[in-house]
Amino acid sequence: MLALIILAPVPLLRSAPATGSSSEDNPALSNQQRLGEFVFIKNCALCHLRDADRPANAPIVGKEAAGVFGPELRGMFKDPSVREEDIRKTIAGGFPKLMPGFRYTLDAQEVDDLIVFLKAPFPAAASAGK
Question: How far does CA 69 lie from the centroid of its chain?
Fold first, then answer.
């Protein structure tokens, strides 16, 4: 019975991006990119998304309101010096006093989904349909 309680929310989280997400404005995102967008909104948007770009289901206070400013992550893989291995290490370990690590928060599939979303074409991924 306890296992059902713990495991039951997982499918709900994996299907949640379809409601109220900015990906509704961009049907060009694949299912995995939409899942990655959900991970991004849930875990990264507070610091890595300007308030003006905040979708309806992102945190209510953005980085400007919190006084926290992380770099824009969407589209960062256009830079040939950005390596996926380095981004995965940063997601897992964070940066002391700057960014928390997510090694105990995100599972491997969520990190994969997030990476796929971050590799999506940008700004087209964020501005399609607007």
Answer: 16
Residue 99's DSSP bridge partners are 95
- Compute the distance between CA of residue 71 and CA of residue 81 in angstroms, rounded to an integer: 15
Tokens of 67: 């006084």
Q: Which domains does the chain have, with CATH numbers?
A: 31-127 (1.10.760.10)
DSSP 25: G
Each residue's pLDDT, cut to its tens digit, for the chain (130 residues) gives: 434 333 333 333 344 444 444 545 556 889 999 999 999 999 998 788 766 666 666 655 555 565 667 888 888 999 999 999 999 999 999 999 889 999 999 999 999 999 999 999 875 434 433 3
Distance between CA atoms of 89 and 99, rounded to whole angstroms?
A: 12
**CA dist., res. 33 & res. 112, Å (int):** 10
